[in-house]
Here is the input.
Amino acid sequence: MSDFFEEYPGYPNYEQMATHDEAHGKTTRKKLWMVFWIMLIVTLFELFIGFKYSEELGELNKEYLFIFLTVAKAFFIVFVFMHLGDEKKALKYVIIAPYTLFIFYLAFMAITEGVYSYHIKDIIATVIGHQ
Here is the structure.
């Protein structure tokens, strides 16, 4: 195997690159704990809103809020664990923008059609009841 790296000196040797010192490990652990606490706070906020202000927000606003917070957590995971946060700004937008629009489009359609199908039952019952 050493012949390969001598023949191709620019090729990365991942076995040698994987060795990190304790300072790097400490930084990585600190970053993971930060991600854990942020995700925990957002999740507890979702639970608090769901239990405490469920009636005040209204069903539709609550659904939109939960979808927004879930998408925000998903993007945070992508930025940290899939290392998208380390990329250039243009690449971030190229990757994230289409998915963001598609997710919000799907959420909008699901909520809109769900409300429509709920009201269509009342309309059908009204029409059948009058005949």
